[in-house]
Design brief:
Distance between the termini: 44 Å
Structural class: alpha/beta
Largest sheet: 9 strands, parallel
Number of strands: 20
Number of helices: 17
Oligomer: single chain
Radius of gyration: 26 Å
Strand content: 15-25%
Shape: globular
């Protein structure tokens, strides 16, 4: 019996061709609104009964009997795990054994239209097929199957969160809907995020505007925290994202003539460039670089505008902090922002800096519909905080050892290094440029999660460090030679 990967190679399918996964979720009803002929189509379980497909992917053995005629009629190839599931657990018999007694499997096998793969739900492996990961639902296995075959772009319909089916599958609601005991299909998004992160596959629902465009306010001095932020976004994102550092737009932002109206940080006014950079089309998300994300950014992306042209966080009155527009979703087609015009309004006295940054009157309709967990200012609650904002600039973990929440940022940094998004040499270079505290490389090499526990030798490295927020970008001359020697010593293990 052939593996799925052998079948894929034998058909000489171009790995750049787009694929469409069809599931039973509510958005399956949108199928006829799209030209699906431009895709190779993979169906999940009972969906094979609805139309011809390139691949019918079935994990649960009972579906073969439920859809026997449709499989023979509609599937170019039937793909199943080597040990198909029975009652949502790996069964006792393998696919080859089942094909001897099941008429549909036997016919598909004899005609070269049956293929297997090894699924991670069982320890048993067969042949040379790689193991395909699944944790909760078959859509995870299907996406991994395609990614491991080298497919670069995958779209989906009917692969939704929530707990309902499309009306097309009303007859199955009492039979198969979440019958494995899970409360929601949302659990599959965790698996999607892992596949996108590790395999680099471009995945998104067909009816969603993608990739998710995230514009980040930053300067060169914030590139290390920005890379950590980007990693934390990608770690949890169940849809492909594109992160754009706004300082790399190379668009000159004029200074207001009155010092009181000049930006408080080098990137305060960068957010006003977004509609222009997005070609005044579609959605965009704005974030500051001094953040870490803990949940799926898809949750922000799909929030409805409901007539507004800007969504912001529903702020809580915590420690007397003023409301911020540091997390925003923008309707770029409706926002006519032009940074030259905005600064001119400041110079004419039509706006003040305080009004601009804390009231945002340049947006016609503002809706504070983003949950406060998406801009948690120097506070964190496990399982609830979606985005942690290190807003106190002098105590941010990359410039200070003393932030009480430094471990959360450090953990994200360590993971980013392990994944290859950042290297130890990147950290060393940022130290040499005076952008982050010198003790950080020691902390990385020694894997010390809490910077408050660094030893005296490491702490001494920071004695002459002046954070870039204090308007200097290089270590003082008296410390540079000693610092360079120590950094080189720390980097030596990385060469081996």
């Amino acid at each position: 019996m052939q593996t799925f990967f052998d079948w894929f190679s034998a058909r000489k399918i171009d790995r750049s061709d787009p694929w469409l996964i069809l599931g039973k979720g509510p958005t399956f009803s949108k199928k006829d609104s799209y030209d699906v002929s431009q895709f190779h189509v993979l169906s999940l379980n009972h969906v094979v009964r609805e139309q011809p497909v390139r691949v019918a992917h079935i994990i649960d053995y009972h579906v073969v009997d439920d859809c026997a005629d449709a499989i023979r009629r509609n599937a170019e190839v039937l793909v199943m795990p080597w040990r198909p599931h029975v009652k949502y657990r790996p069964g006792q018999r393998n696919l080859e054994e089942l094909a001897r007694t099941n008429p549909t499997l036997r016919l598909m096998n004899e005609s070269g239209r049956l293929a297997y793969y090894n699924l991670s739900s069982t320890r048993e492996t067969h042949g040379d097929s790689p193991v395909v990961r699944v944790k909760f639902f078959s859509a995870e296995a299907a996406l991994n199957l395609l990614a491991q075959a080298g497919v670069r772009q995958v779209r989906s319909l009917g692969v939704d969160g929530g707990n309902t089916y499309s009306p097309k599958f009303d007859d199955l609601k009492d039979k198969t809907l979440l019958s494995g005991g899970h409360a929601s299909f949302d659990l599959q998004f965790e698996g999607f995020a892992q596949t996108i992160l590790t395999a680099g596959v471009d995945y998104a629902p067909l009816d969603m505007e993608t990739p998710i465009r995230i514009y980040v306010g930053a300067t060169e001095a914030q590139m290390l925290p920005l890379k950590v932020l980007e990693y934390s976004i990608r770690k949890h994102a169940s849809v492909s994202v594109k992160v754009f550092p706004l300082h790399q737009a190379r668009i000159e932002i004029p200074q207001s003539k009155d010092k009181i109206n000049q930006p408080r940080t080098p990137f305060s006014f960068q957010r006003f460039l977004i509609p222009e950079l997005a070609a005044r089309r579609g959605r965009a998300i704005y974030l500051d670089s001094d953040m870490v994300v803990f949940k799926d950014i898809r949750r922000l992306w799909n929030l409805p505008f409901d007539g507004a042209d800007l969504l912001t966080v529903r702020e809580l009155d915590v420690d007397g902090r003023r409301p911020q527009f540091s997390v925003m979703i923008l309707d770029c087609a409706r926002l006519d922002w032009d940074v030259q015009t905005i600064v001119a309004a400041l110079d004419k006295g039509e706006l003040s800096y305080e009004q601009l940054m804390f009231e945002m009157p340049i947006a016609r309709g503002i809706r504070a519909s983003i949950d406060p967990s998406w801009n948690s200012l120097e506070r964190f609650k496990a399982g609830q905080t979606a985005l942690l904002h290190y807003t106190d600039m002098q105590s941010q973990p990359w410039v200070s050892r003393l932030n009480s929440l430094n471990k959360l940022w450090t953990q994200a940094l360590f993971e980013a290094i392990d994944r290859g998004y950042i290297t130890s040499r990147d950290v060393a270079e940022e130290i040499r440029r005076g952008h982050v505290r010198p003790s950080l490389l020691y902390q990385v090499n020694e894997r010390i999660i809490d910077s408050r526990r660094l030893n005296r030798r490491a702490r001494a490295l920071d004695e002459s460090f002046i954070p870039p927020t204090s308007f200097t970008n290089t270590p003082p001359p008296t410390s540079r030679k000693r610092l360079t020697r120590f950094l080189n010593q720390l980097l030596m293990p990385a060469k081996r």
